[in-house]
Amino acid sequence: MMKRIGLACLVVSAAASGAVADTLADCSQGRNADVRLRACSDIIAAPSYGPDEKALAYRNRGNARADAGASAQAVADFNEAIRLRPNDASGHAGRARAQLALRNVAAAIDDYDAALRLTPTSASLYVGRGHARFVKGDLAAAVADFTEAIRLNPNSPSAFNRRGLAHRRSGDLARAIDDYTAAITLNPVYALAYNNRGYVYEAQGRKQDAMADFQSALLLDPSLVGARDGLARLGIPAALLAETEKRVQEGKALVEQNCSGCHAVGGKGASPNKKAPEFRSLHERHPSLALREPLSRGIAAPHDEMPKFALTGPQVDTVVAYINSLRPATWATRVRVATPISDEQDIGDAGKGLSYARKVCASCHNVLRSEGVSPNSRAPTFKKIANTPGMSVTALTVWSRTSHPTMPNLIIEPNDMDDLIAYILSLRDQR
Fold this sequence. Notes:
The chain is mainly α. It has a domain at 351-426. The chain contains 21 helices and no strands. α3 runs parallel beside α5 (89-101) and α6 (105-118) runs antiparallel to α7. The model is unreliable at 5-18 and 329-344 (pLDDT under 50).
């Protein structure tokens, strides 16, 4: 009898251990936002988990909420994660990202300072703090941070693009062009860098150079409304800009159908749900940052109060195009050609993305530029993924958040995902 009781206890204990492991795994996966949020919340509420596990759950839930745009809730989660593990740089970095979305710029800089004290050789943290300082208007400090990021990682197109923006805002157009050109040299299919260099060429009165860059940007990404508007200012016939306008109108129809119950989706009016930001204000929540990345994450990873709906990558592209079209026109007064101040930034380091791919993805995919086959015959090569028609930052972000039967559920941290996307898109054939 005692043997039977002992055996039963072992079975119950094993089942409980398995349930704990499953909950931890669900909290640490990035494919199903609902499952991830529920699992992390269960860990936070249960007394059986230790401080390290609860800190991880708070951090993962904070990242999920930050991805979805629930920034105040994300800050609350990161507060708890940092309380439990004050020396975790990723907790400070996550809270900095959420604080910046709330326009708490000083708090974001403080968090980046703390993260850098813990990991002083992180190029991505210098880029993050540089962006926060740029938003604050401390351009010299922003340039210094971007320069340090480039010293630590000289192969980062994103760091050059961001420093170019800071130089341009400072009025140093020659250095801005040098940085945008360096970014394009490192990544010849970098649509935002072409777009930003086009702005500077236009400001200098170099019409043909500006037109060439805006056309390159639109060829790589037809949803770049800023490039479309630049070409229109320079006299390109409207018929040549029709694809971008088509995307804007398709995106308008989608948000009116899917989003207008909570958000104000037009050029005026308040949101029906007070917690839902007006779409025209999203540029203020992500200042000087290309909206594609935060919008794609938010749609692909809805937060606790956001209804779940499925959009394809191309559909998300149209939503991005429409919301970009709501950007208020801000014009420079110190240059002789009227030029939008709002250059676009993005994030992602292709070199670090390759390192991540070799470590995490290479067991299934051929992650290199070569034409070789993948170890798993059902896994496409990264080069094939990059050259799939319609492939974009949006499509890759949505794909990363979608369950696939042949791909393991793993959580990809935001910085790692940005780097991985930058690397995959760098494999695209030049057009």
